[in-house]
Please model this.
Amino acid sequence: MSLLTHILACLFGMGSWVAINGMWVELPLIVPQIPELWALPSYLTVLIQTANIGPLIVTLMHHFRPGVLDERPVVYCIAVLGIVATFLLAFFWKHTVTIAGSPHSVPLLILCFLLSVVDCTSSVTFLPFMMRLCPQYLTSYFVGEGLSGLVPALAALIQGVGVVRCHNSTLTVSLNKTIANSTVDPDKLQAIYQPAKFSAQAFFLFLSAMMVICLIAFILLNHHPAIAREKKDDSYFRDELTPGKREQAFSMHPQTPEQKPMLNPFGSAKRAPRSSFGKGTYSNAEVAFIFVVLAWANSLTNAVLPSVQSYSCLPYGNQAYHLAATMAAVANPLACFIAMFMPIRSLIFMCVLTVFGTGFASYIMAMAALSPCPLLVHSTSGTVVIVLAWVLFVLSLSYVKVIIGIILRDEGHSALVWCGAVVQLGSMVGALSMFPLVGFYELFKSGDVCNTNCLM
Model:
């Protein structure tokens, strides 16, 4: 295994969702300066789901015209589009267009849609491309995919996004001589957001640079001589393979331990296929179970829980919110590292771990529903529990997603295409389920970070 290839696979994976993850963490700095204000997250959710037209087209192409679509030109196109869109976003995110007499952030919304197309389509193109590399590099790709959320979060943390200070309202009003007849509660504090250390323009240029790194890594994965020699030395990548055997070539070596059927490790590797899916390692019921778990895990981690993160954490304080967001972002690549050295493929273990992660997700949802007065709201133990719940939730379900990716990688190229499609489907269902609950029915209520008082 080449260390260079591992690094390149990781950098390539970082470009998968870095743009949209960056948009989410930058919202507190963007929202006060645009006409849409805090309606922007709702618009962003709709745009991301609309952008699933990209993976839908790719999936249908693979289904109806198998073997015709080559992922590499598509990856080049979406990587270049991501670079251009993030670069333009740095200069046009504050520009508005007057529609029906009201200003709207049309350039921002259009560029966000293009970035959503880039990131959504990466799920059904980046993963299948990894079939062209040895199986060991897939975990490195997932590490990079996890870092695509961590790196923007750390950049926003350094930037100081969302840092708030509480000031006495009486003092604030007395300093503003233009306010007349103001009735101010002397005991009430006012939340004042601190200026960021660097601008949103610099942050978007940073995201554009991340996409450039992703493109360079992709080019090297295709053309670097060391990686080409590695493929040439592997009998599964030799040129003399016929097109009919190409699908089999993108699978693991028969002699590797991972190739053995998971539920019957002592069985014959040449037994009859148990289903028409992939190489037939799993029965139809097991394949359905794997995809249901994959959709469920991505629904929770990519849509359902992120939509209520502020409600579940902010009642415990601004520090608890930032700590939970940062530590959860660290837990994702950490789960990939664990899977690299401990790839436990048991379906039973996967089920137990999914139930374990869902339990923590249920606790987080319960605290969000109880906002602004959740359990242990005024105690240090409450902060510790909510942060720990977020970390263990992300850690467990991220491990499940990586293991499923490894399993489906062994089943062949089409299995990874369906893997990406199910990831997007689960995320879409979760987002569309939470959007009306948060945006219209207002089932979750946020407290005032400086003035919420809960009777214990």
Observations:
- The two ends are 57 Å apart (CA to CA).
- The CA atoms of residues 173 and 182 lie 8 Å apart.
- Residues 380-410 form the longest helix (31 residues).
